[in-house]
Amino acid sequence: MDSNFYFINAFTKEKFKGNPAAIVMLTEKVSEKWMQSLASEFNQPITTFMSKIDDNSFGLRWFTPTTEINLCGHGTLGAAHILWSEGMVSSQLPINFHTKAGELQANLIQQQIQLTFTIIESQNIQQTEELETIVGLPIKASAWAKDRYIIELENADMVHRVNPNLERMKNLDGAGMVITSRGFDKYDFVSRYFAPKIGVNEDHVTGSAHCALASYWGRICKKDVFFAYQDSARGGELKLKIIDGEKVELIGDCISLMNGKLNS
């Protein structure tokens, strides 16, 4: 096998910030078991596997160290970054990704990458004693967004300090929990994302979570353009724009760290 791999940092302009990922450009068909084994070996939050369909269309799959997932924002951002920065696709062309979540498109806009996803609607739910126990801080509001909880706290300081019970979180429905609040300074809102059930105790910057947060905060703030910050240890920022209530654009930066070649 003559496949190249790349390590990137997504949703940041600084090395060792944002969300890291491994990007693998496949040159031949491989098994799902092989992809999972390599993702476990790399031990990155996400390993993205790309396979070329035509000049600007690629198949895309994402694996955590323990399981495959259906949608990953920063893994998609990293894939687009590698295709453009390595000259595999003209920067004048959009990139179409074919995934288990449907077709996704990436565009290069003023040196930033714009991803267009389907918005994830959220519905308010009642707080439960179990949610309060897991979060460990007073909950202002809670919602369910397709496959994860959204928990709103009173302020950004509480989001920064929260230390949820990850073992108990594994027993909840869905992939994980987004904890969020109104933002500070230039940020409209802040968040953190915990997904221990799929092998990611805390994700650094989560594009898919912001597809749901756009819906959640759009309803509260009555607006459709946001600047958001994910307050993980590495941190990262995203621009969001809701399009016709159905799509959301995620706009962010990405940098390359290293590259190599897989041995046969």
TrEMBL record:
One of its GO terms (molecular function) is isomerase activity. This is PhzF family phenazine biosynthesis isomerase. It comes from Aquibacillus halophilus. GO terms for cellular component: cytoplasm. PANTHER family: PHENAZINE BIOSYNTHESIS PROTEIN, PHENAZINE BIOSYNTHESIS-LIKE DOMAIN-CONTAINING PROTEIN. SUPFAM superfamilies: Diaminopimelate epimerase-like (SSF54506). It holds the Pfam family PhzC-PhzF. NCBIfam families: PhzF_family. Belongs to the PhzF family. Keywords: Isomerase.
